[in-house]
Amino acid sequence: MKEYKLYLAGEWVDTKSGKVVDDLNPADGSVFAKVHTAGKDELETAIVKGLEAQKAWIALLPEEREKVLLKAADIMEAHLPEYGQILIEESGSCFMKAMDEVAQTVNIFRAAAGECRRVDGGVTPGEVAGEFSYWVREPLGLCAGIGPFNYPLLLCANKVVFALAAGNSFILKPASDTPVSGGVIIAECLEAAGLPKGVFSVLPGPGSVIGDGLVEDERVKMIAFTGSTKVGSAIAVKAATHLKKYALEMGGKNPIIILKDADIEQAVETTLFGAYFHQGQICMATSRVIVEAPIYDEFCDKLLARVKNLKVGDPHDQMTIIGPLIHEEQCAFIDGQIKDATSKSATLLCGGTHKGAFYDPSLLKDVTPEMEIFHEESFGPITSIIKAKDAEDALALCNNNKYGLSAAVMTNDVRIAMDFAKRVESGMVHINDTTVAGSRRAPFGGVKKSGIGREDSAFSIEEFTELKWVTIRYEKRGFPPM
Questions:
Q1: What is the pLDDT of residues 199-258, one digit of tens each?
Q2: What is the mean pLDDT of the chain?
């Protein structure tokens, strides 16, 4: 069993004000690792040294920051199998998902490296004669991120590396369930790549100490958060009292609309992946399947046949699709959603059982807006099929939700596809594709209670910088008589 120290301002140190905690394997409850956690003293050190180091970091040429990130990407890529195994052991990720997450994170490092040279500005005509006017993007200074457990490496790195590319220093609080895959790995790669000391710290620890401390300290200029809507909303309130920037990527109750002209076989495949990949523990998971009435019964039968054959078991097995949930307690929550739905005339087609943290893939049909599961995230391997009278009813059902992260529409009618893309209340809409989609070149984020702000490429750079307008007079300016 390995013990992981704190990565504090470029040094691996023992905790002084925190604790050394057990990091558990969700598959069997065994201790995966011992992890040092931070307290108030370590938080203060990270802030003070992060502020100091940022001045030298932004003074580097963009290509020098780029070299660090590119080298870190190469280091991570060289350790892909090792880091994939950590994701399996610590987060319960199945083999396919774990290896893909590391590979995608390598691409994130490289995408961020490319942005180092593109943090620029522009020129605008002066308002009066004899004036030159331009604007630039400048880093905020010291930023912080609070990461999730479900895609810990990818989603934490996505905050860290774009903030660094923009010239900021950064403090990361990974999720308590995944401090190694969500923090230590990133620190190892950046340190080995030559990141200057002090620019980056990883502080696992209690949210009431580290999370609240980062949000409430005025020296930290921005908070980037991925997690639940409840926690994200609380962060927004606290940050607003300090007029602090924040970007929030929160929950989703993501719909896929399947219209009567859709290719049913493709719709089944698309839904199966979106609903059950990584046990449904994805903010973009396809958790509402809205099907137009003429093909409803056929779709239900075909999806059921596929769900029944999903393999549940050891996440190390490359054939396993459904691994463990991060906490066994989530099983009871899903049980409650199913009980509520079936008491209100929904039908449980399969599943609804679990052993330990392994929840069997489950499928509900005839779900309606009167049921809790129509509106609330499950964060487990379950999805709900909802019958729509027609296309307009499907759209109304889709938008009848407080969330608006990702949505999909299956249709061969280009006119309807374009119309729905405009009218669906969601930050992302995918035509004839899954709700579980991301891109290093596109804006990732939601509307309504799914979030504020956008991530990836230039959109992350916008979040981690502020604009400054500069004018230069090269002729004397006249003023009105005073």
A1: 999 999 999 999 999 999 999 999 999 999 999 999 999 999 999 999 999 999 999 999
A2: 97
The CA-atom distances, in angstroms, between 95 and each of 61, 87, 90 are 39, 9, 12
d(CA 67, CA 194): 9
Residue 382 class from Cβ within 10 Å (0-12 exposed, 13-18 middle, 19+ buried)? Answer: buried
Q: For 24-46, what is the mean pLDDT? A: 97
Chain segment 390-427, per-residue pLDDT in tens: 999 999 999 999 999 999 999 999 999 999 999 999 99
* Of 223, 237, 240, 249, residue with least CA distance to 450: 249
Angle between helices 95-115 and 152-165 (to 10 degrees): 10
CB 401 within 8 A of CB 375: yes
Tokens of 366: 């005839």
The catalytically annotated residue of 90, 115, 188, 249 is 249
- Give CA angle at 51 (47, 56), nearest 5°: 145
- Give the active site residue among 283, 300, 331, 398: 283
What are the two backbone dihedrals, phi and then psi, of residue 438, each rounded to the nearest 5 degrees? -150, 165
116 counts as catalytic: no
Q: What is the pTM of this model?
A: 0.95
Task: Reply yes or no on whether the pLDDT at 126 is more than 90.
Answer: no
The secondary structure of the chain, three-state, reads CEEECEEECCEEECCCCCCEEEEECCCCCCEEEEEECCCHHHHHHHHHHHHHHHHHHHHCCHHHHHHHHHHHHHHHHHCHHHHHHHHHHHHCCCHHHHHHHHHHHHHHHHHHHHHHHHCCEEEEECCCCCEEEEEEEEECCEEEEECCCCCHHHHHHHHHHHHHHCCCEEEEECCCCCCHHHHHHHHHHHHHCCCCCCCEEECCCCHHHHHHHHHHCCCCCEEEEECCHHHHHHHHHHHHHCCCEEEEECCCCEEEEECCCCCHHHHHHHHHHHHHHHHHCCCCCEEEEEEEHHHHHHHHHHHHHHHCCCCECCCCCCCCCECCCCCCHHHHHHHHHHHHHHHCCCEEEECCCEECCEECCEEEECCCCCCHHHHCCCCCCEEEEEEECCHHHHHHHHHCCCEECEEEEECCCHHHHHHHHHHCCCCEEEECCCCCCCCCCCCECCEECCEECCECHHHHHHHCEEEEEEEEECCCCCCCCC
The answer to whether 463 is a known catalytic residue is no
Q: For the segment 442-473, what is each residue's pLDDT rounded down to a tens digit?
A: 999 999 999 999 999 999 999 999 999 999 99
- Answer yes or no: are the C-beta atoms of 120 and 460 closer than 8 Å: no
